[in-house]
Specification:
Elements: H1 2-11, H2 17-32, E1 42-49, H3 62-71, E2 74-82, H4 88-98, E3 101-111, E4 128-134, H5 143-167, H6 174-178, H7 189-203, H8 207-218, H9 226-237, H10 255-264, E5 268-273, H11 284-293, E6 298-301, H12 314-328, E7 333-335, H13 359-379, H14 386-391, H15 395-408, H16 415-422
Parallel strand pairs: 1-2, 2-3, 5-6, 6-7
Antiparallel strand pairs: 3-4, 4-5
């Protein structure tokens, strides 16, 4: 039985969506039959996990992450992918089936003109910030999203051309070596790193020869896998590398334009936070004012970047300060681990002394955005809808309502249940 379970879980990462669904339904059948024991749901959650539609370090599909979240007792699970919404519908359906409350988000980079001389959270790139939309209910066809996807693909292909020139005689072919690593063609820098490592093993089967090649190209030959891929990315694709091109105000869309798109799609535009050490993030009130003026209404945090267990330092203080600022401005805050780099945790340790005080804030945000997802999907009446604007006179009252709905309504709530809740 154990071997069969492992085979089914492996099948959850198939590039064939029908195979993924078949495996999930069989796993759920085994759980109902008592062959698999699933734990009670808890307040633990991760609502910022990348899937293999952009890059997941462990190859997780949307369905796989939903299943593993349920298997680990997470009460809320959320995915986010760069530049595409390919995972949204599959993930939300998988969450409904397993009984975990789901959130689906999109992430990209944008330009903030008011910060054009200040680095925000994209290192070494003034005016550029990572930005999100949270609470999508489907893969919305929108011209802005189509342009975003096309621009991302063009950037990656152009980067490959520059890195290929420096890697001779090792060369990657986009169609042969890169696209097969993706389920729907959204290749990223991390896919290129994996492809270069794979191609090197084929071209230099002798480990000593291969190590000599990497030392020549990278200055070092670390253990293959995460360390090698991270070094390829750092030396070849990041600032100072041959593949890197310094972005400017024309490289990415304006934050205001992305916010409008997120609103058009029924999602919540969301500011992201790194660690508060940059000049831009030290002016967080100013940045939030600019963002919220064009529709942003929530904040995303990756806790692991902000503290070291047992250490009270400036990053931890920055984390507490931005959390307090978000509470003051009634901005829901969601959190999670990215899982787009080997070594990322499956879920944050909310029992640490550093994170435990913030769990209520993070949990409230997860409840609000998951409730938004249900209300938007079932009735077109999400957190930023016309219905919500008319019903609530203050953001605090709206937050209380959506938090309670996110706590009380089940993951598989019906449109009728949602409408009854709206009428309270």
């Amino acid at each position: 039985m154990e071997t069969h379970l492992l085979q089914l879980e492996h099948q959850l990462d198939s590039f064939n969506p029908a195979a993924r669904r078949e495996a999930l339904l069989e796993l759920l059948g085994l759980a109902r039959g008592g062959q698999i024991t699933l734990p009670a749901l808890t307040d633990r959650h991760n609502v910022h996990c990348h899937t293999f539609f952009s890059y997941n370090a462990y190859g997780y599909s949307p369905t796989k992450f939903a299943w593993l979240a349920r298997k680990d007792g997470l009460g809320f699970a959320g995915i986010v992918d760069f530049d595409v919404l390919d995972a949204v519908e599959e993930f939300l359906e998988a969450c409904r089936l397993v009984g975990v409350k789901g959130i689906a988000s999109l992430e990209s980079r944008v330009f903030v003109p008011e910060f054009k001389t200040r680095v925000i959270n994209s290192p070494g790139e003034p005016g550029i910030t990572y930005h999100m939309g949270a609470g999508f209910t489907g893969a919305v066809p929108h011209p802005f999203l189509a342009r975003m996807r096309a621009a991302a693909a063009q950037r990656t292909r152009e980067m490959l051309g520059r890195v290929n020139a420096a890697m001779r005689p090792l060369q990657l072919d986009w169609e042969r070596d890169v696209l097969p690593l993706t389920p729907k063609g959204n290749a990223t820098e991390r896919h290129l790193c994996e492809a270069f490592e794979r191609r090197a093993r084929e071209m230099f089967p002798n480990p000593a020869t291969r190590a000599a090649f990497w030392r020549e190209k990278l200055g070092d030959a670390p253990a293959e896998g995460a360390k090698l891929q991270n070094l390829i990315r750092a030396r070849m694709m990041k600032k100072g590398g041959v593949g890197y091109v310094q972005p400017d105000e024309k490289s990415f869309p304006l934050m205001a334009d992305m916010n409008r798109c997120m609103l058009d799609c029924g999602a919540i535009p969301m500011v992201t936070w790194l660690d508060g050490t940059s000049e831009g993030e030290q002016s967080m009130e100013e940045l939030l004012a600019i963002a919220t003026n064009t529709g942003a209404a929530a904040l995303n945090i990756i806790p692991d970047r902000n503290y070291t267990p047992g250490v009270k330092d400036h990053k931890l203080q920055n984390l507490y300060e931005v959390a307090a600022l978000a509470e003051k401005q009634h901005l829901p805050v969601i959190a999670g681990t990215e899982m787009n780099s080997p070594g990322n945790k499956f879920v944050d340790n909310f029992d640490t002394a550093e994170l435990k005080p913030l769990l209520p804030l993070f949990l409230k945000g997860a409840r609000i955005v998951s409730a938004h997802t249900l209300f938007q999907k079932c009735a077109g009446s999400g957190y930023l809808s016309d219905w919500a604007a008319k019903k609530f006179t203050t953001t605090a009252a709206k937050n209380d309502f959506f938090e309670a709905a996110g706590r009380d309504l089940p993951a598989e709530a019906t449109p009728q249940q949602v409408i009854e809740r709206m009428q309270r």
